[in-house]
Design a protein that fits this description.
The protein is mostly helical and 764 residues long. The protein has helices spanning 3-7, 12-45, 55-103, 139-172, 186-203, 212-225, 229-237, 241-252, 263-283, 288-300, 315-322, 330-345, 376-386, 388-394, 413-421, 438-452, 477-490, 495-501, 506-515, 517-524, 549-559, 563-583, 589-620, 625-635, 676-682, 688-695, 705-726, 739-756, and strands at residues 107-113, 116-121, 646-648, 651-654, 665-668. The strands form two sheets. The protein has a three-stranded antiparallel β-sheet with strand order 3-4-5. A two-stranded antiparallel ribbon has the order 1-2. Strand 1 and strand 2 (116-121) form a beta hairpin. Helix 5 packs antiparallel against helix 6 (212-225). The longest helix has 49 residues, at 55-103.
Amino acid sequence: MDLDSLRFANFSDLDAAITDWGQMVAKLKILQDDAKDNLKAKSDKANWAGDNATVTRAFVDKTAGEFADAHTQAETIKKIVTDTRGELVGYRKQLNAAIDRGQKKNLTVRDTGEGSFTVTMNIHPDRAAKGTTVPEHTQQDVDAFRDEIQNILKQATESDTSAAKVLTLLVDQAKYGFSDASYADRDSAAKAVAEAEKVARILKKNPHDVTLTELNTLNTTLASYKNDPLFAERFATQVEPKKVLEFYAGVADPYQGMGRDPKFGEQAKQLQKNLGITLGTATLSDSDKMQAWEEKMVKLGPDRLGIDDANDPTGFGVMSNLMRFGDYDDQFLNSYGDKLIAYDKERNVEDMSPWINNWNHGDLNFWDKNDRGRDPMTGFMQALGHNPDASTQFFAQPEGAGESVDKDGEVNEHLKYLTQDRIWLADPTLDGDDKFNAGKDALGHALESATTGYAYDSDPMTGKDPLHPGSGDHRTAATAGVMEQVAYLYGSEKGPEMLHKQSELADSLGKMGAAYIDDIDYSLSGIGDHAKDDGAFPAKYDGRANFGNSGAINFLSVLGQNETSHGVVSAAQHIYTLSALDAFPATSEGNIDSAHDALTTGAEARGILDHARVQQAETDYEKNSEDANKSLGRSGDWIALGAGVVVGGGIAAIPVPGTSAAALVIAPVVVDAAGEALNTFIGHQVDKGIEDAEEDPTKQAQVTSEKFYDEGFDQLGRAYDTYLNENPELGDTGDRNNWTQDIKDSYDLGSGQNDYRGRAPHED
């Protein structure tokens, strides 16, 4: 910055700009609130049909979000401009004060252009008038004056140029629309960019030359800024994609560990996570530089990096392990996945995996003892598991599918390949379980996010993003389209074999079934595929899933065969039925009919699940009735799930005993909050027998199939009793006396249907 530009700066134009931006922020705030409270709120409540249910509603939601982003961006720009103006005014004051002090020492400064200046004396001593005392100064005074002026101009230049840089980066974040990046002032935005440039220099180094201190600095900075949009974009675009992959492979290569500080391994582990999240944040930028970076990264996928580290991995082999963490751009993930699938299909040969073999020792995953990270499809599936919109797109139902999926041509090719054709191999470490296939487990995670609209490991119990009680139902017509395909595949004749060979997916399939239990019940209601009961099973979102009557029966009959999926779906079914009883008090004929249908249809679903579980237990343990009884006893443990259930915003979060947060089950409920029936169940304390059984599997209660069915009847009976207790007038009504028999008949119908409908148990 030139000296005179700062010394005589006129900030009137900048002041006017700040005023204009302030007015713009206020106007956009009104528009944001109006879009949220009127446009979107009315859209959410509207009874859309046809294309309006998907296209128009999605457009309205996106438009409302753009107003919010526009307000955020305008507010950030105003703050940065205001802060910069304040800093420049401050530097101008410092400059003029310094010049005044210099004049008192007979020193003056003159602008010579292009940021340079000279320091001279005001009056030559020889020309001083007689009797005039010229201020004394030394060379040290001259040097100090020069350095002070230079430092002020340097700081002012930094303030001005960094403001221009961050404003440009901010605007470039979104090619169309607005960025949601928010900063309190120029300093915070500029610091983020400066820190990105600083640590990017570490990434450009040879990974073998990086010190533990440098790696710690890199990790600490990434951990602090990994979700900062400007930091992430600037960081990523400072380093070529290939160099990013080479650096991580060099740091993570286990064979580089000899002679290193033991703490290096922990730093490498943290780098995988911090770098992955940061790169994910960077891909959300629409800047031209970032778009080019993403294209290069996808192009690198099939190629080997040409390095000595980690068995010279492919781009897929490294990037898939980084993308296990973070929120990535949907289009980037889909482009990456399309290329990975195409490459993988060409090499999907029995006993000839290009990934998991005796010569590949490129262990690049530090976060799971059952997954060394050699198969890039596993890491990619984990990425989809954390990015619901991307996974829903990746497994989208093909165009032209009917009202429900009923043939292979209506199934997404990616989904067919990954569930039916791909050869998945276990990839455990020496400490891992060689009977557990992490790839199949990751596939389940991807399908969970694709069907539910939530990251598979969302934790509503702690209120952490992206899910917390009250956040509501994230299902859409698109997620339902994926769910219909899943139900078709696993409810098909091959379904029992698929579930048996992919037992790692059982928990995920159970969670998916639980998430759509209302639509499953709706498909079971009525007569065949006619006269469905919208009253008892109201649609919770537009474009609800349609499984067809036979499809729902088939899918439930397969889910019921597995201990885990049976328990999860049974719990969701019971909670949904109880919520229906809360939603339909006996205050009208319509409510009474809906409560009755909810109980009977829920009983039918429970019967299908229980009968499938009994048949599979008898098939699995044909020669050992004791083991069969223990298996049924474990299936009965779902009763304990009442304790710890959280209800809010039309969903219930169900914790599975003895498992991690990733096993939380999200199920729809008819009403937003828990009523008496649900609260009674939620408040139920787990009895000591079940607690002991969880602590020691050998103490599991042994139950015969008769007792197992009796427990099913008893649960349904308690639900009915709860409704009667809350609505005593119902018991006095003559035409309601057959309810008990209707519920029993429905449970028997569900059980009996498996004898001539549904899928038979799997036999090895």
